[in-house]
Amino acid sequence: MPKKIRVAMIGCGGNARHHMTQLTKISGVKIVGLCDPSPKAIEAAQQIEGLAKVPVFTDHKRMLKEVASDAIEISTPHTQHARQILDSLAAGRHVMCEKPLVCTVADCKKVIKARDKSGRILMTAYQRHFQAPYRYCREVIQSGKYGKVNFTSCLQSQNWFRGCVLTKTWRSQLALSGGGQLNDSGSHLLDIMMWMTGQQPAEVFAQIDNLGAEVDILTAMTCRTATGALMSFSVVGHSVNWLEDITIWMEEGTLAIRGSTVTEWAGTERAREVPAEELGRSWSPDLNFIAAIRGKEEIQTPPEEFLKVIQLTEAAWKSGASGVPAKVKY
Description:
It is built from 12 helices and 15 strands. The protein is an alpha/beta fold.
């Protein structure tokens, strides 16, 4: 039998309950604490098989003190993450936190320093790092078989304005969210493009429209990377549909991701849809987190990867506010 891993949850909303369901399927894992200020969220979590009698809390510090656990999973309003991560690491727990890991470069450096001091694992729940289409493209790009990256384009559209702003959820409140769609689901887009390509934007020019909200809704941004490649990001938070479209142009080939489909062009050859069996394995952040605690896997989403995201995001916000390009400080 694998070593028993005891996990406590800070945050019990819908996203957290998805993680709980994943954890209950992993052999040797036990959820030992639930923390959320919302009775409805707690009640919903208790409906998951095996969680009806798990101790519940409204204060994460009390749970860290009173419940013996090995690890913490955090899924709470974004601006609460930094304090909860720091408290959990100080209490000797391994931590997986939903994106965005934190909301400022300064806080990201703080949690990395705390991770190093604690000797514990800290990772972001960026699921695309575990999905075969993105992993396949990363391997092809990093192999250099098609030469250097010249240009990338990615688009994400979502009904974010209606779902978050018009309904007045915490995601539309700057004090809780730390930013709009660029800092929320758009964070996935920035992360995966930099992770797949290995590119680090050096300068960014962004035009941002809040559409009267406290936080960003529409973002059009272009970057030039340290290697001279150009990157284009379109984050559309006022749309009637979900759509994501990614294309990477290299010197001798092109890759495109549309949903779970990868299309590849090698030189002047016709487009080839990459077979599912060739794409490789997909798994989940929860599986990786537990395997890493057991010493079976390296974590795939260390906080250093998120640091690049928040550095680019802060530069984009600065450019959007000033109307001129901003340097990305690494």
